[in-house]
Amino acid sequence: MNISTVETQGPSATSAKVNDEILLVQLSDGRAISVPLAWYPRLVHGTIAERNRWRLIGNGRGLHWPDLDEDISVDNLLSGKPSGESQGSLKRWLEMRSHGKNGNN
What we know:
Order of helices and strands: EEEHHEEEHH
Mean pLDDT: 91
Helix content: 25-40%
CATH topology: NE0471 N-terminal domain-like
Number of strands: 6
Protein name: DUF2442 domain-containing protein
Structural class: alpha+beta
Number of domains: 1
InterPro entries: DUF2442
CATH architecture: 2-Layer Sandwich
């Protein structure tokens, strides 16, 4: 028996909305996926303006929030994987924000 090894590319993101509780991402195949905002602490700590300023990256394979230095992949959303950022990294980022720095390295 032959098994195909051709990889198919999954759906890409087409748009995103963020409120105080969820991140909602529309996908190219017509689905929408929502996840708790708590999964992404940088989005939680972002202002409304920062949350609303995002762009698609990798032909829609991910989303990027430049003001928050946050990247989220569609694959991780579909797999139910929250942010993998360590508590130490988040703490340093929050300290930089509180000192008026943008948090980008």
